[in-house]
Design goal:
single chain, alpha/beta, FAD/NAD(P)-binding domain, 6-stranded mixed beta sheet, 5-stranded parallel beta sheet
């Protein structure tokens, strides 16, 4: 039995949702987390994949010590790739240890009077009244398929997010569009399953991340900058460890940082696996696509304008995720229309609160405000601390007010 009005309802039980739930429970807030823990990671990521992030940057946000990824695993050496199943197990363990019993249902609709009480309808039929809602929906709703490919049927073109296994492509010709980690790892996993993949990308040359750890002299290491959750470099360290600074930059500068920090590249440990089994068509892009019998025909163009006719059994668009609040179906049109936006993302204040008091956004939807770290697990702790710090200070007044200070009641939350 729950109180008639709770303090906060968290939509999503991935790294950001679980982190917010953990901080909220620690702060003594009445909180419910809606979603199956790590469901997206478990059911929408390729079974054989590895995380690109290093162990120190793969922890969920916790208000108490002892719950990092390395502590769960008894220490995980730097430079050893993390298998997907290991990370999923860590997230599920974190939920058991720190989060307030995530509920395996779905949020269908968020309605109400911003700044007072929201009414959230669940797939169970229950209606939950809450003073605040945190949208931690992850990346799933925002899978991006290029416009030339989007009109084709899903029998011919899919986004990489829908593929957990690749066995059905054995013996098939598959074009993988993209040059980032998702595209390159998808191509390798396809080859491992007996498919004949080809990587098609605009870039004339694939980029690869370097082996982590200190290299060169102390002076060279100093000049290169510190290691952070987003890699090495002084500016990268700021975007990673001090994301609040990004918010003070002009919108165009923030957009440039999000777009160009950690551009498309493969992990260092994947490079040797992308061998002769994987074809490459680099420096090209799709200008037309159409069904051709039960296959797909692509017209691709290089930088000189020369065109090539490409036939394949299937195309997988490993072309990332583009946040857009209009794709969050749980938010009705009347609420979405009232949101101030930065591009297609919600414009957020210093506490991740949108222009609708009591409605917060965490994860990818916050990247337009707080920068590229919000695209990664590493940003979960900062987001959870900021959101719950604000909630802990304002909920006691019976309403969430955007002009209140952000200092939490429990100083340990800002360790």
């Amino acid at each position: 039995m729950y109180d008639s009005v709770i303090d906060v309802l968290v939509v999503g039980a991935g790294p950001y949702g679980l982190s917010v739930g953990a901080y909220a429970r620690h702060a003594g807030l009445r909180v419910r987390v809606i979603g199956t823990p790590m469901d997206f990671w478990r059911n929408h990521m390729p079974a054989g994949m590895y995380l690109k992030s290093e162990p120190f940057a793969s922890s969920l946000g916790s208000p108490v010590p002892g719950l990092t990824f390395r502590e769960y695993n008894g220490g995980w050496p730097e430079g050893l790739p993390i298998p997907l199943h290991t990370f999923v197990s860590y997230g599920q363990w974190f939920a058991e240890q720190a989060a307030p019993d995530p509920e395996p249902s779905q949020v269908l609709r968020v309605e109400g009077d911003p700044g007072r009480v929201y009414t959230v309808t669940l797939s169970t039929g229950e209606e939950v009244r809450t003073r605040a809602v945190v949208m931690a929906v992850g990346v799933g709703p925002f899978a991006h398929v290029p416009r030339r490919l989007a009109p084709l049927p899903t029998t011919l073109v899919t986004h990489s997010v829908v593929h957990r296994e690749f066995d059905r492509f054995a013996g098939k010709e598959v074009v993988v569009v993209g040059a980032g980690q998702s595209a390159l790892e998808t191509a390798v996993l396809l080859a491992d399953c007996g498919a004949r993949p080809v990587v098609l990308a605009r870039t004339p040359q694939l980029a690869w991340n370097s082996l982590p750890g200190r290299t060169g002299s102390p002076l060279q290491t100093l000049l290169r900058g510190p290691q952070s959750g987003l890699g090495r470099g002084w500016r990268t360290w700021v975007w990673s460890e001090r994301p609040q600074t990004v918010r003070y930059l002009p919108a165009r500068a923030r957009q440039h940082i999000v777009k160009n920090t950690l551009g498309p590249a493969g992990a260092w440990w994947l490079r040797d696996r992308l061998d002769s089994r994987v074809g490459r068509m680099l420096g090209r892009h799709v200008v037309d696509a159409a069904p051709h019998g039960d296959r797909v025909r692509l017209i691709v163009e290089d930088r000189r304008g020369d065109r090539t006719d490409v036939r394949a059994d299937h195309v997988i668009a490993a072309t990332g995720y583009v946040p857009d609040v209009d794709r969050i179906s749980a938010l009705p049109p009347e609420l979405r229309r009232r949101l101030r936006r930065t591009l297609a993302s919600p414009a957020l204040d210093a506490h991740f609160q949108s222009s609708l008091p009591g409605l917060y956004f965490a994860g990818l939807t916050a990247a337009a405000t707080f920068g590229p770290v919000m695209r990664f697990v590493h940003g979960a702790d900062f987001a959870a601390r900021r959101i719950v710090g604000h909630l802990a200070e304002t909920i006691g007044a019976g309403t969430v007010r955007p002009d209140m200070a952000a200092a939490p009641r429990d100083a340990t939350m800002l360790r």
